[in-house]
Every structure is written in C-alpha cells, then in structure tokens.
C-alpha cells in the first residue's frame, strides 16, 4: 500500500536534465537498439523493402518493374537490365507512459519526480539517435500529453510535458495499457513507469501489447521508505489514492511479511518482462536513475534484492 506524505517536489521549473546527467546519457546513446520499428520513414535501416532508403542490392529486371528503378549505368556495363532494391529506413517511437496517480507523490524525492527524470533521460537518448519520443500520462485512462516528436529540437517539448505532470487521482494500469495498444497502432517501444502497486490484471494487458508488436520496458519506481521501511511500533498508513487508513504494529513479523509481498511483486514484474521478451528495471530514490536507464537500454530483466539503495 502506498501512503501519502507531506514532502513535495522541487519547483516545476527545476531541470530534469542537468549537465552531469546529460554527460552520462551521452555515453549510453548507442545502447538504444529497439526491436520494434514503426514503419515510419526515419534514420535506421529496416527489413521493409521500399524506395526511401539506402541501396541494398540489384536484381534482374522483370516485366512490370518501374523503369525509374532500372540501374541504367549497370545496364550499359553488362547489357543486362537490373533494378535497384532498397531497404526502407524505419524509425522507432519510444512511448513514455508515466504513472501520475496520487501514490507517485510519495517519497523524498517523490516517485513521480524520479519517474520524470528517467523518462527525460530515455527521451534524450531516443531523440539524440533520431528516433521519435512521445509522452503519455497514466491514471485511470491514458492521456497523451506530447505527441510524437523527432530529433533534439523536440526535446524541450518532451521535457515541458513531463514537467507538467502532477501526482493525482487513481490508476488502472490494465486500462491504460489497453488504451495504449488501441491508440498506438504502429509498434514501438512502450516504456511504462509506475510503482506497479495496482492489483488489476495488467499482466494480460501487457501480453496484448506484446502481441501487437510493441517492445515492453517496465520501470518500477519506489521510494526509499517503501523499499526499506524503517517504521517501528504502532503506525497508521493512509492510501494516497483511496484515503483508506490501515493501523498496524510494525514489528519484525510485520516487516518480514511486508518484504515477502514486495519481493513477490519484484518477481511478478521480472516474470512478465521475461514472458513478453521485454525489460524490467527498478529505481529506488534518485541514486539509481542512470543505472535504471542503462538497464532499459540493454534489455535487462532485474531480479529482486533486499534493497536497491
């Protein structure tokens, strides 16, 4: 259960990409090699054949071929008509779906701020590699806050969209994922940033996204207090999304039961990521942001540990 907190994020004008962070991201640019291509013309060679990319090979001319594709220079040399075959250049759209429900407002720094920084880092890497990036907000439904943009010139718009997200309301991850599959018809890289404390049937929804051709990246964002609670004695926990209060005595038995449930969630995420041939990375606080981005880019499936901080 996520709990509410009095801590707040820094001002909305705070930078999501400071110079030191950018330097670390620049070293990871070449790690972005998504499997899913969108079929839009971009900067990367794909498997689709067409006329909008680099030359791939010659083949013999057959009646019906477009005369404009005949390589007349080769014909003059060999006396045999051949046509040029190209591999189409395709790009990937990296869709950053950020859980902005009330539970993400917990922690210091808040989980939402950490999620924003991870999303900003992934967007920077994608745009620097001439891919596209898109930002969507996940609450009870999906809402796109910044449509697809390509190249470094689009980075300020992506950062503005991320910066504007605030933690509020509830979340239904299964509905959000299904919305994403319905809206994003062209396959791409679907990055879901959440604490994943929604008990709904989101595994099945992720399976549908995978079946639709999307490459899945699960990024779990937790506060230090959630990953390693230091409560002691009688406590009252308030669910940030429902307002429900749970009173309990936090002793060693309670701590063990809590850790068992948390580790079960870690394993649940790792298992579904493996099943959909995706990645799973976990960020605890803001110390693990760069490591988390690297694990997404290298398609790592993180296994559970007692603490990531």
Could you characterize what this model shows?
Helices cover 32% and strands 27% of the residues. With 309 residues, the chain is α/β, with parallel strands linked by helices. It has 2 domains: 19-38 and 91-297, 3-Layer(aba) Sandwich (Rossmann fold); 41-90, no CATH class. The strands form 3 sheets. The protein has a 6-stranded mixed sheet with strand order 5-4-3-6-7-10, with helices on both faces. A two-stranded antiparallel ribbon has the order 1-2. A two-stranded antiparallel ribbon has the order 8-9. Strand 6 (189-194), helix 6 and strand 7 form a beta-alpha-beta unit. Helix 1 packs across helix 3 (111-128) and helix 3 (111-128) runs antiparallel to helix 4.
Keywords:
9 helices, 309 residues, alpha/beta, 6-stranded mixed β-sheet, Rossmann fold, elongated
Helix and strand layout, with pairings?
Blueprint: H1 19-26, E1 41-60, H2 72-78, E2 82-90, E3 93-99, H3 111-128, E4 132-138, E5 142-150, H4 155-163, H5 173-183, E6 189-194, H6 202-211, E7 215-222, H7 224-227, E8 233-238, E9 245-250, H8 252-275, E10 279-284, H9 289-297
Helix pairs in contact: 1-3, 3-4, 3-9, 5-6
Please provide a brief summary of the model.
The chain is of the alpha/beta class and about 300 residues long.
Structural class: alpha/beta
Neighbour order of strands in the largest sheet: 5-4-3-6-7-10
The CATH superfamily title of the largest domain: von Willebrand factor, type A domain
Q: Give the SSE order as H and E letters.
A: HEHEEHEEHHEHEHEEHEH
Number of separate domains = 2
Strand content: 25-35%
Average predicted local confidence, pLDDT: 84
- Helicity level: 25-40%
**CATH fold name of the largest domain:** Rossmann fold
Architecture of the largest domain, according to CATH? 3-Layer(aba) Sandwich
How far from one another are the termini? 20 Å
């Amino acid at each position: 259960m996520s709990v509410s907190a009095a801590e707040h994020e820094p001002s909305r004008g705070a930078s999501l990409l400071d110079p030191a962070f950018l330097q670390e991201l620049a070293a990871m640019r070449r790690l972005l090699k998504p499997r899913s291509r969108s079929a839009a013309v971009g900067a990367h060679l794909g498997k689709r054949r067409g006329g909008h990319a680099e030359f791939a090979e010659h083949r013999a001319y057959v009646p019906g071929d477009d005369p404009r594709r005949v390589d007349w220079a080769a014909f003059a040399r060999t006396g045999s008509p051949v046509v040029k075959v190209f591999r189409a250049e395709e790009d990937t759209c990296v869709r950053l779906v950020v859980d902005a429900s009330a539970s993400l407002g917990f922690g210091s720094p808040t989980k939402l701020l950490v999620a924003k920084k991870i999303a900003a880092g992934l967007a920077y890497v994608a745009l620097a590699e001439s891919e596209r990036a898109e930002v969507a907000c996940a609450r009870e439904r999906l809402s796109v806050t910044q449509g697809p943009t390509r190249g470094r010139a689009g980075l300020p718009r992506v950062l503005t969209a991320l910066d504007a997200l605030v933690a509020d309301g509830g979340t239904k991850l299964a509905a959000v994922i299904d919305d994403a599959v319905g809206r994003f018809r062209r396959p791409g890289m679907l990055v879901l940033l959440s604490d994943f404390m929604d008990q709904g049937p989101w595994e099945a929804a992720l399976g549908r996204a995978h079946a639709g051709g999307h490459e899945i990246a699960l990024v779990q964002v937790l506060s230090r207090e959630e990953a390693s609670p230091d409560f002691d004695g009688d406590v009252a926990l308030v669910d940030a999304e429902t307002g429900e209060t749970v009173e309990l005595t936090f002793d060693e038995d309670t701590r063990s039961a809590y850790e068992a449930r948390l580790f079960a969630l870690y394993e649940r995420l790792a298992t579904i990521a493996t099943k959909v041939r995706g990645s799973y990375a976990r960020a605890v606080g803001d110390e693990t942001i760069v490591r988390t981005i690297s694990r997404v880019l290298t398609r790592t499936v993180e296994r559970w540990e007692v603490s990531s901080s």
